[in-house]
Amino acid sequence: MKKWIWLCLVICMSVVYHVHAKKGGNNEATSTASKDAICSLPLDYNTFQSGEKLTYKIYYNWSAIWMKAGNVTFEISDAYMNSKTVYHVDCVGKTASAFNWFYTIDDHYESYIDPSTLLPLKYIRDIHEGKFTKKNQFRFFHDRNEVAIDYRIRKGEVKAKDEVASIKSCTQDVLSTLYYARAFDFKKGHLAVGDTIPIDVFLDGKSYNVHLRYKGKDELKTKMGKFRCLKFAPMLLSSYAFGEGGETMVIWVTDDANKLPLLIESPLRVGWMKAYLNEYENLVHPLDAKIK
After folding, report:
1. Total number of domains in the chain
2. Between residues 59 and 271, which one has the greater pLDDT?
3. How far apart are CA 272 and CA 139, in angstroms?
């Protein structure tokens, strides 16, 4: 139950190696100028834009009863960083009022993304889940494959401060991963059923190699209508919420230029979770995947 927000953040990770921290400087985060030299994946840099806002309703099922558990919003705005305009992605997740008596979640994630490379420059995490708190701030230096760990604080205790870790080229943060995956160019990628989209993610001071497995095309009916969709299964870390992990989560994405996640569902150790797209604003492209 504590990890319901991860459904919308698409934490699809399996541990491959640990990153060793070392002392480093306090410079401005950078993104290498040539996106082709960084990422081998074909990307569509016109998939989303500043002003886009997505709102999801989260539902939890236990003993055959579906209950609204909370809401998650993702919003893109313009910010100014490193003498250029960048994307500022803001994600806020809160439990529904009916759940607050049982367990309160108030999570806030931010990512500053270079629009010319779709690589993260800065990542901030500030979560409050019951009595549990965690705060992170990372800055990415893709020109030298490093990330500055400004601080990692867990339950008020400083776990790391002013450290530097090595990362692979094209490494994402948790929030930028969602937008990087959306930007995958399916026309150039030529995905076949069973193929995977690989992504490297930096989380809590460690790097993870993750993937999204393409499961084929489908049609999905929601309260907003019926849509042509692409289905994906992300690899999940073994965790308290998701159990042994694996590819048990399924994501339905609109089969059009927006590639909006419409539905995310997954079994949990106890019960099931679903995240439905409830509202959207300022899309770049018409929602052509909508059938009716």
Report:
1. 1
2. 59
3. 35
Residue among 266, 239, 191 at smallest CA distance from 14: 239
Residue 85 or residue 272, greater confidence: 85
Domain interval for residue 168: 5-281
For residues 27 and 235, which has the higher predicted lDDT (pLDDT)? Answer: 235
Arithmetic mean of pLDDT, 81-90: 94
Query: Which pLDDT does position 69 carry in this prediction?
Result: 80
List alpha helices for 33-173, DSSP H: 35-38
Q: Please say if the pLDDT value at position 240 is more than 50.
A: no
134 to 108, 152, 262: CA distances (angstroms): 10, 8, 28
Give 95-101's long-range contacts (Cβ < 8 A, gap of 24+).
95/69, 95/70, 96/68, 96/69, 96/70, 96/71, 98/67, 98/68, 99/67, 99/69, 99/70
Indicate the pTM of the whole model. Answer: 0.85
pLDDT given at position 102 = 67
**Alpha-carbon Rg of the chain, whole angstroms?**
18
In a domain? residue 286: no
- Report yes or no on 245 lying in a domain: yes
Q: Diameter of the chain by CA atoms?
A: 56
> Across residues 241-249, what is the average pLDDT?
58
Task: Examine residue 15 and state whether it is found in any structural domain, yes or no.
Answer: yes
Lowest model confidence (mean pLDDT) among 35-49, 53-67, 249-263? 35-49
How many Cβ atoms are within 10 Å of 243's Cβ, its own excluded?
Answer: 15
Q: How far apart are CA 166 and CA 206, in angstroms?
A: 9
Burial class (CB in 10 A: 0-12, 13-18, 19+), 80: exposed
Q: Which two tokens stand for residue 199?
A: 């992504």
Query: Buried b / exposed e across 152-177, counting CB within 10 Å, b at 16+?
Result: bbeeeeebbeebbbebeebbbbbbbb
